[in-house]
Design a protein that fits this description.
about 280 residues, alpha/beta, Rossmann fold, 4-stranded antiparallel beta sheet, about 20% strand
Length: about 280
């Protein structure tokens, strides 16, 4: 069974690795094809993420989030934008349960994160694919070992690891790089390893925190193409970013955060509000 098979009607992902990993994908995606991938999601699908009157106040008294209400339906692609210190990273940390809200409730896939026991966290995080700006690869491990580590830490059997890791690397176009160490990879290749690590346990949704922040524009666009293809085949994607060019081109859902509050939520938005045109607001 391929890495992503068997997740169809149960609410997961139904794409295969070989469907995604083609050389044309990396260099030849046309603008027309890109626009075909940039369709407004169906907001009537069931919610995967729900923030209900969420506040986050730190011991210093700083209010990082203030009365945030947010619903992300299954299959959505959401950009979180806003100035540094606006609250984007706090929202991400709450989503991956690194922190708990001071007030309010957060539901992910029907589970309230604030009430989740510590022993339940590993199982929850297997549903979540995490991708960060600084890759967070282990320098003394090869590409294969970095991706396999994500499975070993959760106690997966060796035969499962041997099956899933090559599929994940094939998905991101890194077949043949298994024995390479991170120091010998380009920035774009390191981010692909990080994405393969995020995908290897077939997560229901992807949370990316500035995934193109350390990449040149051409490489950043290659990485975004990969996220688009993954989203088009069923994964929900939430991405915090400062990359205005990508946000403006893709016109996906944009949630602007300012001073800890949601200042704008557009179904097909730009990085900054376009006052010259009427906006379609998320409902």
């Amino acid at each position: 069974m391929a890495l992503w098979e068997g997740f169809g009607n149960s609410g997961g992902i139904g794409y295969t690795a070989r469907d995604l990993a083609t050389r044309a994908f990396w260099r030849g995606t046309s603008q027309q094809e890109t626009h075909l991938m940039v369709l407004t999601p169906d907001f009537d699908t069931r919610p995967v993420i729900s923030f209900q009157h969420v506040w986050k106040t730190y011991p210093t008294g700083t209010e990082a989030l203030r009365d945030v209400n947010l619903v992300v339906p299954e299959g959505d692609f959401v950009f979180l934008v806003g100035p540094s210190g606006a609250g984007k990273s706090t929202l991400v940390r709450l989503l991956i349960r690194e922190e708990k809200p001071s007030k309010g409730k957060i539901f992910v896939d029907g589970t309230e994160l604030g009430r989740m026991k510590r022993r339940q966290l590993p199982r929850y995080r297997r549903k979540v694919g995490l991708v960060f700006q600084d890759f967070k690869l282990l320098p003394n491990l090869t590409v294969y070992e970095n991706v396999a580590f994500a499975l070993r830490v959760h106690g997966e059997a060796e035969h499962t690891i041997k099956s899933r890791v090559p599929e994940a690397l094939d998905t991101v176009g890194l077949a043949g790089k298994e024995n390479t160490y991170p120091a010998n990879l380009s920035g774009g290749e390191q981010q692909r390893v990080a994405i393969a690590r995020a995908l290897v346990h077939a997560p229901r949704f992807i949370i990316a925190d500035e995934p193109t922040g350390n990449l040149d524009p051409a490489t950043a666009w290659e990485i975004m193409q990969l996220f688009l293809r993954i989203n088009a085949r069923g994964a929900t994607v939430v991405m915090a970013t400062h990359n205005r060019e990508i946000v403006d081109l893709l016109r996906r859902r944009v949630i602007a955060i300012d001073a800890g509050q949601i200042a704008r939520d557009d179904r097909s938005g730009r990085y900054h509000d376009d006052l010259s045109k009427p906006q379609i607001r998320a409902q």
